[in-house]
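In the current project phase, work has continued on tokenised descriptions of protein folds. One protein thus recorded appears below exactly as we store it.

——
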Amino acid sequence: MTDKAPLQIIARLTGLAYLAIFALAIAANFAVIMPITGAGTPEQVLAQLQAQEDAFRMAVAALFLVLMADLIVSWGLYAIFAGRMRELTLFTVLFRLAYTIGHIPVLLNLVAALRLSSPEGMAVLDEAGRAAWIREYLLAHAHGFMLTLLFFGVHLVALGVLIWQTRAVPRVIAVLLVWAGAGYLVDGFLWLVAPALRSAIPGGGVFIVILPALVGEGAFTVWLLLMGVRQEMRTALQKS
């Protein structure tokens, strides 16, 4: 890394991509896809999807944009950290790429649900069959997303360790990222091996996943946007 590759610009581009991920993913999942998935019976899910078809299409498009932004974040993290700790940086980025690439077929479940809800789907199945399959595709997306987040959890833990070692940003953010990554891992593995225990935890989804992710990843995003990386980190990278 040299002075001709301005680290601060890369850091802020990474922060912007992270901000886009937050905005698009929250809007698509919480405002559109999750309410439709949880609308009730298969017939109610189909009716809700047809009533909000335009919003659903925009949500699917937004989630594909999220994956593109994830690739930008992967590039940015490698550009920032590889000059100091190449092996750990590569490990960190590979797990984010595994999450991103693994999420592509998961999103195709939403595309399949959209196709079945359209007039094209009427020629394939009757109303009851379409409704049942659409609900299954939406649930497959929800469950597949949760499993890809296991890779993302490892990525966040590794990123926290990487930040702790390099001091590129304050170490408190490293701790918050490890906390967030651990939350994804605990939630995903509980869903796989102990679903009853996961359901029994009061507010589990909020306290295990959502709160740590918002705090940890949010703090990292804000720091990248406002501060970039520390001067001593830039100096060390420029000498490497």
About this structure: The chain has ten helices and no strands. Residues 127-166 form the longest helix (40 residues). The mean pLDDT is 90. The radius of gyration is 20 Å.
